[in-house]
Write a structure and sequence with these properties.
The complex is a heterodimer of chains A (209) and B (267).
Chain A: H1 4-39, E1 52-61, E2 66-75, H2 80-94, E3 110-117, E4 126-132, H3 134-138, H4 144-161, E5 165-172, E6 190-191
Parallel strand pairs in A: 4-5
Antiparallel strand pairs in A: 1-2, 3-4, 5-6
Helix pairs in contact in A: 2-4
Chain B: H1 6-27, E1 60-68, E2 78-79, E3 83-84, H2 85-102, E4 106-109, H3 119-129, E5 131-139, E6 146-151, H4 176-192, E7 197-202, E8 214-219, E9 222-224, E10 227-229, H5 234-254
The chains are: A alpha+beta (209), B alpha/beta (267).
Chain lengths: 209, 267
């Protein structure tokens, strides 16, 4: 015969375990929600005075090594400098979504965009200097293809939205840096062109001298 | 010593000193002006003129330059299992070197130990050696298959008219058509080896600074059913190295200019 006090103790312990399990489950659900919200970071809030318009985003795909143009509705300011910055923030925010084909860390990426007269008088149009956040550069995946796709995506999108830009250069926290993440050249000046890219396969004809 | 011998010794010493002075004067180089190239207006001028650099010699058709990217403090990409890109590229270069040597090539590498080298230093080594092909080796954990990258520069209008002086930032311009052919040939070898391959162009140091046909090869995870083989896998590296050796052997036979007796011809 089990004494009564032992039975009370047993059921009290069982109740305590059940309560702790429920508390733990609730904690896990809260943490999951918090992490999911981080991954689904939305782009910067659009200015209330800006109207929504259709723009071309040149989106990268790591697996296929492509840049494809897609249309999207974005609220952009009229000032060209602010417009370029907001557009690029919107573009790079696409890559921090969970289903991104070119995954990048969420967070602010563009510090400033400066539009200048081209220092080389033989080149018409404007020079865009994009000042990247060091946090964005430091967390960028390392590899020739992935780094090049990021740059081509920025160049193509900027060229489509602001055709007056003919050359693009990059800074990181206001300073020149050799590479994006060890590979793609950040000291080079990139011509603003349509950067739509399709994978190229080797052919027998192309080997002929 | 007797006093009568002193004048004789003195005279002999003076003679010796005079002889030494005359000899040393005769051996002192005199600053002579470099004559200007003989021409109707410059024949008698005696001022310094800059000497034109010698024509750039052509390439050594059996010489391959390998550059395992990164090294020293520059670790490159961090790959799965705490592996570093610089270690993988060094191992990959060693495999390629073995196979190319067996195929009759002479192989030089930018480095064979874990040391710091800037991309400019790597380009200097390659440009001085005048190899038939320069291969820059990389590894990554993003993307799939093998990425073959050539310079994003615009090829020169007339690649045969190589100027005497090449701009450092666009030195690749004149050999870019050959680089594209080498890239294509290596790509075909990867297709034959059943390895997925992507040909692309990018601005990656030191590709633009190389005067040889230059290609960067980046090993990315090889998709293998539901899983993927990482770039650090030795079998994958060996397969890729074998494909590269096969491609370069074929390229040498089909595209490298044959030896000639003229000065500066391929050797």
């Amino acid at each position: 015969m089990i004494p009564r006090y032992q039975r009370i103790l047993f059921w009290s312990l069982v109740g305590g375990i059940a309560l702790m399990a429920a508390f733990l489950l609730h904690g896990c659900q809260q943490a999951h929600k918090r992490l999911t919200a981080l991954n689904d970071a939305t782009p910067i809030a659009a200015p209330t005075t800006a109207s929504t318009e259709e723009v071309a985003l040149y989106l990268a795909n790591d697996a296929e090594a492509t840049i494809t143009s897609t249309r999207d509705q974005v609220a952009l300011p009229q000032d060209p400098t602010l417009r370029a910055r907001a557009l690029l923030e919107h573009l790079l925010a696409q890559y921090s979504k969970p289903d991104s084909t070119h995954p990048l860390q969420p967070g602010p990426a563009i510090d400033d965009v400066f539009l200048l007269t081209n220092p080389d008088p033989t080149i018409p149009g404007q020079l865009a200097v994009i000042n990247l956040h060091s946090a964005f550069v430091d967390n960028h995946p390392s590899g020739i293809l992935t780094e090049n796709l990021t740059i081509q995506s920025i160049v193509g999108t900027l060229h489509a939205a602001l055709p007056q830009i003919t050359q693009i250069r990059f800074l990181v926290d206001g300073q020149p840096r050799d590479t994006l993440a060890g590979h793609a050249d950040l000291r080079a000046s990139y011509p603003a062109t349509d950067t739509t890219t399709k994978p190229v396969q080797p052919t027998e004809e192309a080997t002929e001298p | 010593m007797t006093p009568s011998r002193n004048p004789i010794l003195k005279a002999a010493t003076h003679c010796l000193l005079a002889l030494i002075a005359i000899t040393s004067h005769a051996q002192t180089p005199t600053l002579q002006a470099t004559p200007a190239p003989a021409g109707p207006t410059q024949r008698d001028q005696s001022f310094y003129v800059p000497q034109l650099p010698k024509p750039v010699p052509t390439l050594y058709r059996n010489l391959i330059f390998l550059d395992p990217a990164h090294g020293g403090a520059d670790t490159g990409a961090s790959l799965p299992n705490n592996l570093l890109e610089k270690d993988i590229t060094l191992a990959f270069a060693s495999r390629i070197k073995t196979l190319l040597t067996a195929a009759g090539f002479t192989v030089i590498t930018s480095h064979e130990t874990d040391i710091d080298l800037t991309t400019d230093q790597r380009a200097e080594i390659a440009n001085h050696a005048r190899p038939a092909v320069c291969l820059i080796l990389h590894a990554t954990s993003t993307g799939t298959g093998v990425h073959i990258i050539t310079s994003a520069l615009t090829p020169a209008d007339d690649p045969t008219a190589t100027p005497r002086i090449l701009h450092w930032d666009t030195a690749q311009t004149y050999t870019l058509p050959q680089s594209l052919r080498v890239a294509n040939q290596i790509g075909l070898a990867f297709v034959d080896a059943k390895l997925p391959v992507i040909l692309t162009r990018a601005t990656v140091p030191p590709l633009n600074n190389l005067t040889c046909p230059a290609v960067a090869i980046e090993l990315a995870p090889n998709p293998n059913g539901s899983a993927s083989t990482p770039a650090s896998d030795t079998t994958y590296q060996q397969q890729a190295a074998q494909a590269i050796a096969t491609a370069l052997t074929t390229w040498r036979t089909r595209n490298a200019p044959p030896p000639s007796t003229t000065t500066g011809a391929p050797r």
